[in-house]
């Protein structure tokens, strides 16, 4: 039997967040160079934007403790999280002044931090657009390099 909930005009932040969980997404750890140090965070707003030119994007919350550093960044590295890397997802979502403590990384494109742990997909990007949208800013990036593995991506769904 199909169960349909009533339509609601009550689109509060909590309602929207809860109901958008019906839209399955992957999860990515995004890294960059902040103020002289690597920074990174877990996101599920990441998605493909354009094929020609090759653009991807994700949205950063204006309340992020590192918002100014992300706005100043010229690029970012997308690490798509594998199905068995829930710990990596949690690590980069947990508040910390240094999420890179104990994490192996090397300098990649433009010196940006690349996680050594293999992931299904890694994209090194240069920022092409910074587009404010409500309480988030959309960071569009041109894909410069693509690295893949056979690992299966993690899928978040309700
Ligand atoms: C599954 C998941 C998805 C998330 N997606 C986003 C996102 O798309 N954009 C964002 O700014 N924060 C997102 N967050 C929150 C960040 O990972 C982080 O916890 C939060 O921004 C606080 O850290 P910060 O102060 O370094 O930004 C997500 C967290 C989780 C667990």
Describe it.
The protein has 158 residues and is mainly beta. The chain has a single domain, classed as Roll (Pnp Oxidase, Chain A). Helices cover 13% and strands 39% of the residues. The chain has helices at residues 13-20, 67-72, 86-91, and strands at residues 28-33, 38-43, 47-50, 55-61, 75-80, 105-107, 113-115, 121-133, 136-148. The mean pLDDT is 95. Bound molecules: flavin mononucleotide (FMN).
Write the layout of secondary structure elements.
Elements: H1 13-20, E1 28-33, E2 38-43, E3 47-50, E4 55-61, H2 67-72, E5 75-80, H3 86-91, E6 105-107, E7 113-115, E8 121-133, E9 136-148
Antiparallel strand pairs: 1-2, 1-5, 3-4, 4-9, 5-8, 6-7, 8-9
User: Which regions contain 5 or more consecutive residues with pLDDT less than 50?
Assistant: none
Q: How far is the N terminus from the C terminus?
A: 18 Å
Task: Using the CA coordinates, give the radius of gyration.
Answer: 16 Å
Bound molecules: flavin mononucleotide
CATH topology tier name: Pnp Oxidase, Chain A
> What global shape is seen?
globular
| SSE string, helices as H and strands as E | HEEEEHEHEEEE
Described by strand count, sense and barrel closure, the largest sheet is: 7 strands, antiparallel
Query: CATH superfamily, called what?
Result: Electron Transport, Fmn-binding Protein, Chain A
Structural classification:
mainly beta
Summed over residues and divided by their number, the pLDDT gives a mean of 95
Estimate percent helicity. 10-25%
Q: Give the name of the CATH architecture.
A: Roll
Number of domains: 1
Distinct helical segment count: 3
């Amino acid at each position: 039997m199909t169960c349909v909930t009533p339509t609601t005009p009550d689109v509060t932040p909590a309602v929207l967040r809860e109901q958008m969980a019906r839209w399955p997404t992957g999860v990515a750890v995004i890294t960059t160079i902040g103020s002289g140090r690597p920074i990174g965070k877990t996101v599920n707003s990441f998605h493909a934007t354009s094929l020609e030119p090759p653009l991807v994007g994700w949205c950063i919350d204006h309340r992020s403790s590192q918002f100014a550093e992300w706005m100043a960044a010229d690029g970012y590295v997308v690490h798509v999280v594998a199905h068995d890397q829930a710990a990596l997802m949690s690590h980069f979502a947990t508040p910390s002044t240094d999420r890179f403590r104990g994490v192996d990384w090397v300098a990649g494109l433009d010196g940006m931090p690349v996680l050594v742990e293999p992931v299904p997909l890694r994209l090194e990007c240069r920022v092409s657009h910074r587009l404010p949208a409500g309480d988030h800013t959309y960071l569009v990036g041109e894909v410069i390099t693509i690295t893949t593995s056979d690992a299966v991506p993690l899928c978040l769904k309700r």
